[in-house]
From TrEMBL:
Stretches assigned to the RRM domain: 73-151
Membership in a protein family: Belongs to the RBM8A family.
PANTHER family: RNA-BINDING PROTEIN 8A
Natural source organism: Nezara viridula
Protein name (Swiss-Prot/TrEMBL): RNA-binding protein 8A
Subcellular location: Nucleus; Nucleus speckle; Cytoplasm
Keywords: Cytoplasm, mRNA processing, mRNA splicing, mRNA transport, Nucleus, RNA-binding, Translation regulation, Transport
Amino acid sequence: MADFLEIDDVEGIEMDEEGEEEGDAGIALLKEKANKRKGRGFDDKIHREELEYEGIEDEDDRDPGPQRSVEGWILFVTSINEEAQEEDLIEKFSEFGEIKNIHLNLDRRTGFLKGYALIEYNLYKEALSAKEALDGTEILGQTIQVDWCFVTGPKKTTKRRSHKK
């Protein structure tokens, strides 16, 4: 990792013929004018604000809502009873379509369910109907919440940082 030293208003600093400053006053003035920057992305010729980056999709055009994962539509089911088994969830959620994948996270110490599950459907309409129908229902006497695992948030506004000079 490189360090860069950027000096503003070089004309205001007097140097002698060898390029060295005159005394302690010159050093203090040099320290005032210097901006030390650390890390990647600082180059003398290219400034970070001028760079344009490529993206997969234009996020500004998308509306907030569910987002498809690489393989399918994933539901995030929370507040599941710790004694629930995979079969209990498959029984409830398979009514709305073929479950492509189900993931239950178990507590290492107790061996019980941690209270959430990820359920994946291949089709959006199957996942949507399961979400709408099963959100707020009960499994083993405990009310569950069903929501999308991946969602696109509200449109972002970029804020530029102002540099102190």
